[in-house]
Amino acid sequence: MKTSTFLYGWLKVLTVLHIVEQLIFGMEDLHQLQRMIAAYESWFANKNMALALLVTISAGFGVSAIRCIFKGGSARFVALFILGLPTIGELHHLLEILRAGHYTPGSVTAVPSVICGVLFLRAVTREFRDDKAIDEPAAILAAEAA
Fold first, then answer.
1. Domains held by the chain: number
2. 78-93 pLDDT, tens per residue?
3. Which of 9, 19, 105, 109 could form a disulfide with 25 if both were Cys (CB 3.0 to 4.6 A apart)?
4. Which range marks the domain in which residue 98 is found?
5. Residue/partner pairs of 107-114 with CB below 8 Å, 24 or more apart
């Protein structure tokens, strides 16, 4: 099993734990998300149409990411790197602690999420470089044979 696959599995476990922590101690992130969605819905006359479009676009991105992962190569690298970036965004919990001066919901699981996310992005980058290094000699030999 590749290191990136192993770490991505742990990122999903940490995501569930992060959500559980916020469900127990408070969902300030949910309120911020609700404000963003309300602003998005205000662009449309019909809120159902806005939601349908948002779901369609999200599903399209999800299918594209899966296709890129299966394709491999640089497409896999880009898809996995983009999927790993939100873990770095969990740093906002640590900034909230510094601003508030006390515990804020989501902070405990944010620390391992950020660490695992950085390790995941590093593993994805390393695997892409290793795969590219293996492919280059094969491409050179194929070009010489032609």
1. 1
2. 999 999 999 888 998 9
3. 105
4. 3-145
5. 108/21, 109/14, 109/17, 109/18, 109/21, 110/18, 112/14, 113/11, 113/14, 113/15, 113/18, 113/87, 114/87, 114/88, 114/90
